[in-house]
Queue: 2 jobs
Job 1
Amino acid sequence: MAVQNPKALLRALFDRAVEVADPMRSLAEHLPPKPAGRVVVIGAGKASARMAEAVEAAWGRCEGLVITRYGYARPCQGIEIVEAAHPVPDAAGQQATARMLELLRGLGPEDFVLALISGGASALLVQPPEGITLEEKKAVNAALLASGAPIDRMNVLRKHLSDVKGGQLAAAAYPARMLCLMISDVPGDDPAFIGSGPTVGDSSTVADARGVVERWKIEVPASVTARLDGITGVIPPGDERLSRVENRIYAAPAQSLAAAAELAQGYDIRQLGDALEGEAREVAADQAAHALSLQAALKPGDAPILLLSGGELTVTRRGNGVGGPNAEFCLALALSLNGAKGIDAIACDTDGVDGAAEVAGALVDETTLARATSLGISATEALARNDAHSFFAAIGDQVVTGPTLTNVNDFRAILIRPLG
């Protein structure tokens, strides 16, 4: 089977993975009929404004407040959309979170709350506990992002440094009935880790949070140390205040990988899993070795192999470059492949933002290293300083989508063609 334009195919697969997770295409079928009485819509995350737009398309004008990332707002009839900073929180997010909590206070058992949560809610829902300032919270969050800690461990610490995460948002709405619709961006699709689980009970302890600080050597101010020596407000599973909450994941990475595989009919699809974690450069080296081994077994005329995977990789900051886990994966993959012919790849974040850059990810082919060398750019040095975005910008192989208005984590595809 001939592949006319491998890069175009890989980009089409990524676009399909994003498209199938668009709330305007997928959310309405998971909504119940609009309840009678007072209905309040709340939400947070990079997809939350699009989710709110989809709710009003189905239910009509609603009351509510949703917090999304700067540049991700959508037009709504009645739901107020507030933009705030991500991945490091800001005062706009804190002020909007306080207003959201106030909106929930005083609701009764006949009232209904629809919560819309997607990836990014951890930074956008920000309510530091008494004694911890926003600036201190921001410093801890920035240190976490640079630490290389996996997302579930980051969220353990975040929950215990918040008055809204770890079930506390749902507790604020009690005794109202709540349905929380979620888009998963976490490996394993555990609702407790999507946006740090603001509507989900959590059994972690302050000792677990201290363990994150110690294991990943997170520098924290004295106020945080004091907080982690006491009792936090995280709501345990089984608490009565969570008894009227239903949490439902309606879109997840596996669905997007399946949609990409369906688009690539005729290829030999190998699914590597939707929950991969680990250092981006290490996973890239493993997948490169796997791709080369598979290619060595291919005969002329065999169908090309397509390796698909999702999950959330991490980057431990070693330098001061501009990068993210998907671009770093691509750079490390190119180095490991070392110009091998017949292997092309893409790695992108489905929210359109890889790390803190407004870039989804990058593409790799057999000429990646050679083109960089011709420009006087060392791939090895770029990787050493975590400067993958600058590397791919220079050779014109960045993938830039703008806000995708959804978020089902990373998407990776490696296309392996037979030689000869």
Job 2
Amino acid sequence: MSSVAIPRPRAVVLGDLIAVNRGRVAQVITDVLLVVGAAGFVGGLAQISVHLSFTPVPITGQTLGVLLAGTALGWRRAAAAMALYAVAGVAGLPWFAGGTSGYASASFGYIVGFFFAATICGYLAGRGADRSVLGSVPAMVVGEIIIYAFGLTWLALDLHLGAAATLKDGFTPFVAGDAIKAAIAALLLPAAWKLAGRRRGEPESDR
């Protein structure tokens, strides 16, 4: 006797709560605004930038924006937002760290990682990972790992660094701050869901 696997339905993400039941055109317009707004949000946080003397990688607020955008928008909108952020920045829009643009940078790999991290975080949110702190923390950790995987690889190749030097320049100075940003994102998403539930008159969940 054969069994048929029933795919798990996608959960609603926070971005789905906007313009719901308002028509297809309204939803498309809302999606575009969410994508552009998320890209602008990450670009704005990129201007919170501190350059360290011993590494070309700056400390910025971008990671927080990427994690929040991914989980709040779902994977499709998150992928579109981070693609827009990267493409517009490469084309000359000065909204990378510290008002820079272009891809000729040792830290550009982190921006490539933003796309994949936001997409995966959005996918996990679509499976309900953003509804509780216990679910959000692993999703944020996965997002951080993806960003570092791309960022460190690009940094090593661009500057011809060995493993130890790559970690010293691209990981060690930032991991504590990124852990704090991941924790903030992991707390904000469940809190936003509780607020949304109260506004819609839904009973609070223990999840």
